[in-house]
Amino acid sequence: MTLVWQRSCASAVAFSAIKYAGVAYLLLIAWKTLEEKGPLKITFDSPARTDRDVILHAILVNILNPKLSIFFFAFLPQFIDRGENQPALRMLELSLVFMAMTFVVFMAYGVFAARVRDRILSRPDVLKWMRRSFAAAFVGVGVKLALVQR
Q1: Crossing angle for the helix pair 66-75 and 51-64, to the nearest 10 degrees
Q2: I need a surface site. Which of 32, 78, 142, 146 has the fewest CB within 10 A?
Q3: CB-CB contact of 34 with 131 (8 Å)
Q4: What are 42-50's contacts with CB under 8 Å, separation 24+?
Q5: Closest-CA residue to 90 (of 104, 76, 102)
């Protein structure tokens, strides 16, 4: 019984240490965000990549992401009838529809981001409020993490 209690205490101490290290890190990020002045720094340190390389990288990231596969196998089968003659084909059809819809949404995000980028970066007041919002979010997550019980 003592060994179980000791492991439980060690686990609680480790949990608390990691938790408060995370809280401190979030508060540090909030402080650094508020401390930053001037425009957002968008730098391109890496060499320029071709469109083909970017697209290939994005495809590989999505194919190798296990969350996506888990989603497809957990969510889509409920839309396939038990009496379906070719369930794999139906699953493929549903997957393609989902991917097409996702592509359209992400393209809309990209177009929107490209259009508002210069407007946001050229307005110091907007950047100041964005920084304050980000810092407040970091502080909020830090407080929530500090209050988490085991």
Answers
A1: 60
A2: 78
A3: yes
A4: 42/121
A5: 76
Among 23, 15, 32, 53, CA closest to 131: 32
Residue 97's closest CA among 72, 63, 126?
72
The pTM of this model reads: 0.55
Residues 133, 135, 141: CA angle, nearest 5 degrees = 100
The pLDDT tens digits of the residues spanning 9-35 come to 678 888 889 999 999 999 999 999 888
Structure tokens at 105: 């949404």
Structure tokens belonging to residue 122 = 């050229």
- Measured CA to CA, the distance from residue 19 to residue 16 in angstroms comes to 5
Distances (CA, A) of 141 to 24, 34, 136: 11, 16, 9
DSSP track, 45-87 = -SPP--HHHHHHHHHHHHHH-HHHHHHHHHHGGGGS-TT-S-H
Q: What are phi and psi of 44, to 5 degrees?
A: -120, 80
What's the distance, Cα to Cα, between the start and end of the chain in Å? 21
